[in-house]
Specification:
Keywords: Membrane, Transmembrane, Transmembrane helix. By secondary structure, the protein is mainly alpha-helical. It is built from 26 helices and six strands. Helix 10 runs antiparallel to helix 11 and helix 21 runs antiparallel to helix 22. The longest helix is centred in the first third of the chain and has 29 residues. About 40% of the residues are buried.
Length: about 550
């Protein structure tokens, strides 16, 4: 009896000496990646897929071939033959066949839909279109007669990205205050609601307003699901979970392309994508809340039930001692924040840190610009716009998992630098390859997307390892926020093709090349201890530093 009491006291003493956290319990007792975690990941796959539908504007607001309406030859309305035999009599020839936004000045005569002679036009003087004829009707460009307003058309993507940026702090607050599950459901409901309303837009302004509201109040789906997924697995499988999430997002993008391909009407396509979002509301009753969040909020009774459910599903057990240790409030160390001004002074005083703070945001700008830019511009590669988009998204999946292996064997710096250079080289090659080599051009394009996918997966890791613990979160957030300049600009890049069709790809190549060169200015962090202090961060890359 005394021996048992002594053993129990010793166990309790050991628990006090060694603070047990949820990772210890996952590793040693209930399992890091068991049936429970797999079931939760399968449930989370639906919102991860849905998160990709925020890029649906690529198809609903897609550019469609158009030309000037010729009323002198009996043309009224938009539903007319796009390329009649007489078209070059009224509209000047161009590299794409004929001009999209200009026509010859009329002299006063009249023709008909069957015969429109050249002598009723002044072929020495060009004027802008008053109205348009379109080759297709499956875009807001047709319904709202946007014609040559290319910058207005692409503004839908920019508004979407701005909303995606603004939703992050809102989702973060809901997630930390009310739980991961509530944040996920609220975002998904808003996303489905405003997306469905947008399908009934009566004008382009309404389309833009509800597109912004949809992302501003609902685009936190992916971040909510990502945090959920990474919090429920053990440390050993966290990198795998981190690769699964963007891969599911890529699958969602492929589904988006398939739905857009199969459903011609942009209104019906939007409804098909967004109505299923309301299914996720049911997750409130059968998706378990994050145990980590429950423990952090000291909701111990719910945390206890959740842990027991995990253990039962994984066919394991959690010891009473570990359960008691997790239910014991942690003693918090009071940290007195030094404020933003102090951080700025420290950055300015340290030439090494200042150089990094000026370098890493550019990596993020280049990454988001090229990553989103290649996806958006893929629809203009050829007439097979849907297949091009699906393939461009599919190539991300091997890129995500390849990065996990490359980072562990080659290191951070070569991986990031190589991804930038590969993507840049492919963009430059794409410009010079003749259009007749369609398959070669597509393969080079996909290889460029593969390269930037490697960068996306490795950028977060490398950036965070360059900064000391005391400033890591703030400086990583700074780089990520500045990087949104790239994602906000990416939807506008198709409009640059008005000046020269390869302008976007030269821009992507130049940004990737410059970003890759800037990576070479920073030290390798692979195998090094994470810097906790400014002095340790400054020692990175120096001879003998560990």
């Amino acid at each position: 009896m005394k021996e048992n009491e002594s053993t129990h006291n010793k166990e309790r003493s050991d628990n006090k000496e060694k603070k047990i956290d949820i990772d210890d319990v996952l590793i040693n007792e209930i399992g890091q990646f068991g049936r429970y975690q797999i079931r939760q990941l399968l449930l989370l796959s639906l919102p991860l897929l849905v998160g990709a539908f925020s890029s649906e504007y690529i198809f609903s607001a897609a550019a469609i071939p158009h030309r000037c309406q010729i009323p002198e030859c009996g043309e009224e309305g938009k539903d007319l033959e796009f390329q009649p035999e007489w078209i070059l009599n009224a509209i000047p020839e161009s590299s794409s066949g004929f001009s999209s936004c200009e026509r010859y000045e009329p002299l006063g005569g009249n023709g008909s839909l069957d015969f429109c002679p050249a002598d009723i036009f002044n072929r020495n003087n060009l004027i802008a279109c008053d109205d348009y004829v379109y080759s297709r009707n499956n875009s807001v460009v047709y319904d709202f007669n946007l014609g040559c307003q290319e910058w207005m058309r692409t503004f839908a993507g920019t508004l979407s990205t701005i909303g995606t940026l603004l939703v992050l702090p809102i989702t973060g607050y809901i997630s930390d205050r009310f739980g991961r599950r509530v944040a996920l459901i609220v975002n998904t409901f808003n996303f489905g609601l405003f997306g469905s309303i947008r399908a009934f837009s009566g004008n382009y302004t309404m389309y833009l307003v509800f597109h912004f509201l949809q992302t501003f109040l609902g685009a936190g789906i992916y971040s909510s699901a990502y945090i959920f997924a990474t919090e429920l697995v053990g440390p050993k499988y966290r990198v795998l979970a981190g690769a699964i999430c963007p891969s599911m997002f890529a699958v969602g993008s492929m589904i988006l392309g398939g739905v857009a391909w199969g459903i011609e009407s942009w209104r019906h396509m939007i409804l098909t994508l967004h109505v299923p979002c309301f299914i996720i509301i049911s997750y409130y009753w059968f998706l378990g809340e994050s145990v980590r969040w429950l423990l952090s909020k000291q909701k111990y009774s719910q945390a206890r039930s959740a842990l027991e459910k995990v253990a039962k599903t994984n066919k394991t057990k959690i010891s009473q001692a570990s359960m008691e240790a997790l239910m014991r409030p942690k003693a918090e160390t009071t940290v007195h924040p030094k404020g933003g001004r102090y951080l700025i002074r420290q950055v300015v005083r340290s030439r090494i840190l200042l150089r990094r703070v000026c370098t890493t945001p550019f990596w993020w700008i280049a990454t988001t610009l090229v990553y989103y830019g290649l996806s958006i511009n893929s629809t203009s590669l050829s007439s097979a716009m849907y297949l091009n988009y699906i393939l461009t998204c599919a190539i991300e999946i091997p890129g995500n998992f390849a990065t996990v292996l490359i980072l562990a064997h080659i290191g951070r710096k070569p991986t990031l630098c190589g991804g930038f250079f590969l993507s840049a080289a492919c963009n430059f090659l794409f410009v010079i390859i003749p259009k007749d080599f369609n398959v070669v051009r597509l393969l080079i394009y996909l290889l460029g997307k593969f390269g930037i996918s490697i960068v996306v997966t490795s950028l977060y890791v490398y950036t965070s390892e360059l900064y000391p613990t005391e400033y890591r979160h703030s400086l990583l957030a700074f780089s990520s926020t500045i990087g949104r300049i790239g994602s906000i600009s990416a939807p506008l890049t198709p409009a640059l093709a008005v000046y020269w069709e390869y302008t976007p790809f030269v821009l992507f190549g130049g940004m990737g090349l410059l970003a890759g060169l800037l990576v070479l200015t920073q030290p390798e962090t692979f195998g090094k201890k994470l810097p906790d202090t400014l002095s340790e961060a400054e020692e990175l890359g120096k001879t003998g530093a560990k």
